[in-house]
Design a protein that fits this description.
Blueprint (H helix, E strand, L loop, with lengths): L1 H13 L7 E3 L44 E2 L2 E5 L8 E3 L1 E5 L3 E2 L18 E11 L2 E9 L1 H6 L10 E7 L5 E2 L18 E3 L7 E6 L10 E11 L2 E11 L4 E4 L5 E2 L2 E3 L11 E8 L2 E8 L15 E7 L10 E4 L17 E10 L4 E9 L8 E9 L28 E10 L2 E8 L11 E2 L2 E6 L4 E5 L7 E3 L2 E2 L5 E8 L6 E8 L14 E3 L3 E6 L14 E8 L7 E9 L5
Parallel strand pairs: 7-27, 11-15, 13-17
Antiparallel strand pairs: 1-2, 1-31, 3-37, 4-30, 5-29, 6-28, 7-8, 8-9, 9-10, 12-13, 13-14, 14-15, 16-17, 18-19, 19-20, 20-21, 22-23, 23-24, 25-26, 26-28, 30-36, 32-35, 32-37, 33-34, 33-36
Keywords: Signal
Protein name: Glycosyl hydrolases family 43
């Protein structure tokens, strides 16, 4: 256990990145050749000599392991302790979400429909061409009844729904695939036609020079490794999101892919979040022993790992152990493997300089009847190592027995900011039924006020309360916005800019400091004589000091630094 806890602490440290418009974790400005102060001043070995830093030399080795992220708008969530690493007298609180009163918004079909048995929202939602578009798995009764005895991972057929407002969803008649003697359904055309699966993650890249590859999907399909049924991610391309073609040279036999034809090594991998980071495609998923173990060789239950690809076709043979819940233990495919606190897959919202993920809080038990799943929340600033803002925080709670989402939840890669709300979609699976597959599913929705996942507020109103962000390299004129509540004449925030060494910049501090006393999702900050942040080759930090007799009422949820031509 001590080795495990040491490793878990190591994962948290590795997550320390930066948030530079170039968002620069711990001031590691690799793009400019500037090297930040180390998170630890200790030098390898027994030497007591301090390492030579950029201030002492203009040449040397620049370590790019935590290279900055350059974006048109940087989002600094209050729950992101890499983007906001320095605080005093502040407390982090996670804000509650609201389940939509009409859940599930998309329901199972009628008898004879392709999704009569289940609407499995292990899927994706993308806003495209004025509509919210959903890809999900349609489960029919015959396939699901035969699933444990036939091909364990045959799963369902890829289906599609759309919405004008993100709430009212329709299953359009696409006329692409024959089902029960006609094509009056919402099934998507697959090549090969026998492609079935249990999970799909879709991204859209309008700038791909090949129009046939602008929609990209990883499909969780059946595979056989050493004669045993397993699951593997298979990449697909599409020009319109409706007609899909397999992206690798693989043939299906009885709905499964041969072990030597899968995109990743022949390992059981239950995929999750799909995103592109620093030019590489990343695919998260869960694995267990014997396909993954802790660094010291200890067996483990469900943990998150990540594979990578430069082109979406050729995927890495190596992987990253991305996240481990405290207490994870277990043997693969055994009763013991269901016990303890484990990780059940993930989904990812790419916000440019930070990734926000929902993941399954696997609450284990000796048998399937004792397993339940809520959804937790993760963050990453480097695309590899994820962490919880507050360990074991339940972000979306499973329903009570008798409710549509009882027992367990599934995460969809489905996050949208719509007006003044953040929409997060999810699915349902009650694991307590074990391998006896029951009719299930639907599209659930939770909302929270736009980007208000969390807040930083004053702990003790009698003392100073403030935070300082990580270094930001703002090389073009940009604007700063606060997402805040609780502000008034008696509760306001003093906003200043500091240089890289945290010295006040005169034009943005002291008597020229900005005063923020109005609530809003995107409150613009202006200084005396400066409407925004003028571009500079030198990095800056933002300092926010809570002020006023009623400063305990202030809640700061997020900051945005946006290029002026991008600011809204």
């Amino acid at each position: 256990m001590s080795n495990y806890r040491t490793f878990y602490s190591f994962l948290k440290l590795m997550a320390v990145f930066t948030a530079c418009i170039s968002v620069c974790p711990q001031e590691a400005l690799a793009q400019t050749g500037s090297l930040a102060a180390s998170a630890s001043p200790r030098v390898a070995g027994n030497s007591s000599r301090q390492p030579t830093r950029e201030s002492e030399t203009k040449s040397g080795i620049t370590v790019l392991g935590s290279a900055p992220t350059t974006v048109e708008e940087a989002t600094l969530f209050s729950m992101d302790n890499i983007s906001i690493p320095f605080t005093t007298n502040l407390v982090l609180s996670m804000e509650p979400v609201d389940k939509h009163q009409d859940n599930p918004l998309l329901r199972r079909g009628e008898s004879g429909d392709p999704d009569e048995w289940g609407v499995q929202c292990y899927g994706s939602v993308i806003y495209h061409e004025g509509k919210y578009k959903l890809w999900y798995l349609a489960l029919n009764e015959e396939d699901m009844r035969n699933m444990p005895n036939d091909v364990h991972y045959k799963g369902g057929q890829l289906a599609y729904a759309e919405s004008e407002d993100g709430i009212d969803w329709e299953k359009p008649n696409l006329g692409l695939v024959e089902w029960n003697g006609n094509k009056n359904n919402n099934l998507l055309l697959m090549d090969p036609s026998t492609a079935h699966g249990l999970d799909c993650r879709v991204i859209y890249e309008p700038d791909d020079p090949d129009p046939a590859r602008r929609f990209k999907m990883v499909f969780h399909m059946g595979a056989r490794f050493d004669g045993r049924p397993a699951g593997a991610p298979i990449p697909f391309f599409s020009a319109d999101g409706l007609r899909w073609k397999i992206a690798i040279d693989a043939k299906l036999e009885n709905y499964t892919v041969a072990s030597d034809e899968t995109a990743i090594p022949p390992e059981h991998f239950e995929m999750g979040g799909l995103y592109k980071w620093n030019g590489m495609y990343h695919l998260m998923g869960q694995q267990v022993t014997p396909f993954m173990w802790l660094p010291d060789g200890t067996d483990c239950g469900r943990v998150l790992t990540i594979f990578r690809s430069p082109d979406f076709v050729n995927w890495s043979r190596t992987k990253t152990l991305s996240f481990v819940r405290d207490g994870t233990r277990g043997e693969y495919r055994s009763r013991l493997g269901n016990e303890g606190a484990q990780v059940h897959q993930s989904s990812t919202w790419d916000r440019g300089n930070v990734l926000v993920s929902t993941y399954g809080l696997w609450n284990g038990g000796v048998g399937w009847e004792n397993v339940t799943i809520d959804l937790g929340l993760l963050l990453s600033n480097d695309g590899l190592y994820f962490r919880e803002p507050i360990p074991d925080h339940i972000f979306i709670e499973r329903g009570e027995d008798g409710e549509w989402d009882q027992g367990g939840l599934l995460m969809s890669q489905a996050f949208e900011n719509i007006g003044e709300k953040t929409f997060i979609y999810y699915g349902h699976w009650d694991p307590r039924t074990g391998q006896d597959y029951k009719p299930r599913g639907g599209l659930g929705l939770v909302t929270l006020d736009r980007d208000r996942f969390s807040s930083l507020s004053v702990m003790n109103p009698e003392k100073e309360a403030a935070f300082i962000t990580c270094a930001l390299k703002v090389d073009e004129p940009s604007d700063l916005f606060f997402n805040a509540t609780g502000l008034s004449e008696d509760a306001w925030v003093k906003v200043e800019l500091l240089d890289e060494l945290e010295r006040p910049i005169p034009a943005y501090s002291g008597e020229n400091a900005a005063r923020l006393d109005s609530n809003g999702f995107r409150q613009h900050v202006s200084w005396q004589g400066n409407e925004g942040i003028e571009g500079s080759s030198k990095p800056v930090k933002i300092q926010a000091t809570y002020q006023g007799e009623d400063k305990k009422a202030i809640k700061i949820h997020a900051l945005y630094v946006s290029k002026r031509d991008n600011a809204k």
